Amino acid sequence: MNKKTLSRKMEIKKAFTTIDLFAGVGGMRLGFEQAGFKTLFANDFNQKCKNTYDLNFNEPKLYVEDLWKVNLKKIPSFDVLVGGFPCQAFSIAGNQKGFNDVRGNLFFRLAEILEAKTPKAFLLENVKNLKSHDECRTFMVIERTLKNLGYNTKHQILNSMEHGDTPQNRERIFIAGFLDKDRADAFDFPEKIPLTKSFRELVAEKADSKYYYNDKPLYERIKKDIQSEHTVYQWRRKYVRANKKGVVPTLTANMGRGGHNVPLIKNSIGVRKLTPRECFLLQGFPKNFRLPKDISDSELYHQAGNSVTVPVIKRIAENIDSVLRGKKINPQLTISALAYAPRF
Ligand SMILES: C[S@@+](CC[C@H](N)C(=O)[O-])C[C@H]1O[C@@H](n2cnc3c(N)ncnc32)[C@H](O)[C@@H]1O
User: Fold this and answer.
1) Ligand 1 atom at minimal distance to the Cα of residue 26
2) End-to-end CA distance of the chain
3) Which of 38, 175, 215, 255 has the fewest Cβ atoms nearer than 10 Å?
4) pLDDT at 328
5) Which atom of ligand 1 is closest in space to residue 49's alpha carbon?
6) If you measure from the C-alpha of residue 281 to the centroid of ligand 1, how many angstroms do you get, rounded to a whole number?
7) Alpha helices in 209-296 (DSSP H)
8) Closest by alpha carbon to 143, among 193, 177, 116?
9) Within the chain, which residues score under 70 in pLDDT?
10) Where do the H-state alpha helices sit in 203-324?
11) pLDDT for 219
12) What is Dmax (Cα atoms) for the chain?
């Protein structure tokens, strides 16, 4: 093989680079790195996230700073911006103020970074109702802003139990954007795949006694409603809700704060809440993902609920990688193009 062909081959294999914004504990980074991307910069303003993040990733470590204050010169050139920007401002659970809420405005910081750095592509993640918020005006502004920056976007709601083979009913909206229109046209979000994993495979038979309700006052109120070992339950302030789909309900950022909403399970020992470790597994984090010992359970629940389902991210990242390499052809485009093609 001559030198030129060899260097082209190496070039083809070269990893695309990312920056990990609103990085949390690095769920997006993990999915992208599993798909072959290389991370060049990571930012979040939460110091506790850094404990978990830095325990699991080598360089670059998490740079803790308010994104508004990050000097853009600190961010190197990169190929793909990755960011699950804060969702409270757009969430049904939040106050629905959208762009009037400063947290909503962080989207415009992302826009500034896209404008300054012009990466080839980006992937943004948010709560499902971002699309319908404020009679769809919020989403229209987001789409228009991205378009004005020269990006061609596609968005889709993906569910962890349908798109990530992960037994959690978690719907999130993803927005992928590409500077190059052909790449955007060629890009598809991953198809649904069968759910092969049961939540029971990811929960341990035994857990520390502090997670059990057996001797706690709430037990008397919940025990008659929690009968099946194959169902996940949630205590909803006044009643127990059983998850009819046989999976774990959406793990949320406020789970574990005040003891509410951490999903409950029953096994041979009794009724207990999921442990933080199990919540991470139910977000598709690998077993060897390390959880720091010096932060509270409630913080770990918060980190798990705030994160993403890693296998979903990996599958999207693989599709982004393919189109950036010019590999993938959108099957639907091909079919419709063929429908109009002259027949001989
Ligand atoms: C929805 S979470 C994203 C979590 C992440 N995708 C993960 O896998 O863990 C949003 C994150 O944005 C961070 N954040 C919020 N406002 C910020 C700001 N002004 N500057 C930097 N980070 C911020 C929060 O600390 C939180 O970790």
Assistant:
1) 8
2) 41
3) 215
4) 54
5) 27
6) 20
7) 218-222, 276-281
8) 177
9) 1-12, 87-104, 258-260, 328-344
10) 218-222, 276-281, 297-306, 310-324
11) 82
12) 78
202: tokens are 């990811």
Q: Which of 152, 162, 96 is nearest to 129 (CA)?
A: 96
Q: Which ligand 1 atom lies nearest to the CA of residue 86?
A: 10
pLDDT tens-digit map of 165-191? 999 999 999 999 999 999 999 999 999
How far apart CA 160 and CA 98 sit, in angstroms, is 25
pTM: 0.90
List all residues whose CB is within 6 A of at least one atom of ligand 1: 22-28, 43-46, 49, 66-68, 84, 86-87, 106, 306-308
Contacts of 64 (CB under 8 A, 6+ apart): 43, 44, 45, 46, 47, 49, 50
Q: How many contiguous H segments (helices) and E segments (strands) does the chain have?
A: 13, 13
Q: Which residues contact 54 (CB under 8 A, 6 or more apart)?
A: 61, 62
Catalytic: 87? yes
Phi, psi of 329 (to 5 degrees): -115, 130
Q: Which amino acid is at 189?
A: F
**Given CA atoms 313, 314, 318, 321 in this order, what sign does their dihedral have?**
positive
Q: Which is nearest to 77 in space by CA: 116, 112, 27? A: 116
Classified as helix, coil or strand, 5 is: helix
Predicted pLDDT of residue 105: 81
Distance 49 CA to ligand 1 centre (A): 9
Residues 6+ apart with CB under 8 A from 315: 163, 164, 190
Per the DSSP assignment, residues forming a β-bridge with 264 are 233, 273
The angle that helices 27-34 and 310-324 make with each other, rounded to 10 degrees, is 50
What tokens were used for 241? 């809700």
Pocket test for ligand 1, best of 33, 45, 53, 295 (most atoms within 8 A of CB): 45
Taking the centre of ligand 1 as the mean of its atom positions, its distance from the CA of residue 7, in whole angstroms, is: 39
Which stretches of the chain are DSSP H helices? 3-13, 27-34, 47-56, 102-117, 137-148, 160-163, 181-186, 199-202, 218-222, 276-281, 297-306, 310-324, 331-340
Go through the domains of the chain in sequence order and give each one's CATH number: 16-195+307-336 (3.40.50.150), 199-291 (no CATH)
